[in-house]
Design goal:
The structure holds two protein chains of two kinds. Chain A is mostly helical. Chain A is built from one helix and no strands. Classes of the chains: A mainly alpha, B mainly alpha.
């Protein structure tokens, strides 16, 4: 049971960690893209 | 006489005949109801073949279908190739324009882990419980991939459960959605996301592959192929590869996948009481996943003025694009002018990524 609880906690934490990192990467990508657009407009 | 001794008819068992009935039901559902026909049709036929005695089609080292199964599934070739095609078919605009919706795809994975825990408590091994839990992710290739790695004896049952429930998304999701939301919540109109540039779409597959594989290396085979397929699509310079990944390759591997899964379901493997539990737990996983997405959307609404329609959370169970279409339909029942499809595609696609991460975590811990 101990192992199952550990996998349960690790799993939920891992999924949220993975998708939070992806969220941060998308935000960074968006920021870079908007700067590039601004430069082009200038 | 030798001709009688080698006759399959004499080796027939009642279990085999029962499995024919299951195969025929799947073929019937595929043809007349069009429930996931691309998979249920070859699976149904594969079941019938696997339960014809003395054919040795699944005989290790000899049988024709065993070769498809061994080199396609056991060698982990087919699920990643399907992901290549899925990547080529996926437009990430919905995720990129509203990245906060990613978390709804993550919440849907709660169902995977709750079911994993429930299955383990019911007496399944950790590996079997993981295979049953992942059905809640509603992602066929990931279910097959994980099952082949952790519990190959459950492959047929878990794959059929996953594809059956994916086909039944229009029946399973609406009651859960209505139960967990109020009429006013279902009428929430979401603000349109910004326009996504081509460059962003081109950078995303590279970025996503790097980030996810660095964090969960065991997810690499599926995520790498998913993002490669998407890079084919978004680069706009390899249209032939993009077209091949979306159509020809996808169709070819689907044939081998379907028939191999079906043929893994012989009476001896399938007619056990555990299989009934797998179907029951798979449905439970699906329901908890949808409910978790809805509840997280409601929770996020407590902290933002830019409200999310909680129905969108139910699309976190992958089942692309069926779950998103169901969200659109239920939303339109409350408000005909409310177009939720594009918003629902965000968690829907994030759900696919989330399920792959969940599978990667299971593999890294249990294998």
């Amino acid at each position: 049971m101990q192992a199952a609880i550990e996998i349960f906690i690790n799993g939920i934490f891992g999924v949220f960690m993975g998708l939070t990192a992806l969220y941060a990467a998308i935000k960074a990508n968006t920021l870079l893209a908007s700067r590039e657009t601004e430069k082009k407009e200038e | 006489m030798a001709v009688f001794e080698n006759m399959g008819l004499l080796a027939l068992t009642p279990g085999m005949v029962f499995m024919w009935a299951i195969g025929l039901i799947l073929i019937y559902l595929a043809i007349t109801r069009q429930y996931e026909p691309l998979l249920l049709l070859p699976i149904g036929f594969g079941i019938m073949l696997a339960n014809l005695p003395l054919t040795y089609l699944m005989e290790p080292g000899e049988g024709l279908i065993w070769r498809f199964y061994h080199y396609g599934i056991e060698w982990e070739v087919i699920p990643p190739l399907i992901f290549l095609g899925l990547g080529a078919l996926t437009d990430f605009s919905a995720v990129l324009s509203q990245p906060r919706l990613i978390f709804l795809g993550a919440a849907a994975q709660v169902g995977v882990y709750v079911t994993f825990f429930a299955a383990y408590a019911m007496g399944f091994t950790l590996q079997e419980a993981a295979t049953i839990g992942i059905i809640g992710g509603a992602d066929g290739p990931t279910t097959i991939y994980l099952s082949a790695k952790l519990a190959p004896h459950l492959l047929g049952a878990s794959a059929v459960a996953a594809y059956s429930y994916m086909a039944m998304v229009p029946l399973i999701l609406p009651p859960i959605m209505k139960l967990l939301t109020t009429e006013a919540e279902r009428k929430i109109r979401m603000k349109k996301g910004r326009k996504v540039t081509t460059r962003e779409k081109q950078v995303f597959p590279l970025l996503a592959a790097m980030v996810i594989i660095l964090l969960v290396p065991a997810s690499a085979p599926l995520i790498a192929m998913f993002m490669l397929g998407n890079l084919f699509r978004e680069s706009k310079v390899v249209e032939r590869l993009n077209e091949a990944a979306q159509n020809a390759l996808m169709n070819i591997v689907t044939i081998f996948l379907g028939i191999s899964i079906g043929a893994s379901m012989n009476a001896e493997n399938f007619l056990r009481k555990e299989v009934i539990f797998i179907f029951f737990l798979g449905l439970f996983a699906f329901s908890v996943s949808a409910a978790s997405g809805i509840l997280l959307a409601k929770f996020m609404n407590l902290f933002t003025s830019n409200k999310i329609n909680p129905l969108v959370g139910a699309a976190g169970v992958s089942a692309v694009p069926m779950a998103a279409r169901v969200v659109q339909k239920v939303g339109a029942n409350a408000d005909k002018q409310n177009y939720l499809l594009m918003f629902a595609m965000g968690p829907n696609i994030a759900g696919v990524i989330g399920t792959v991460i969940a599978a990667g975590i299971f593999i890294s811990i249990l294998q």
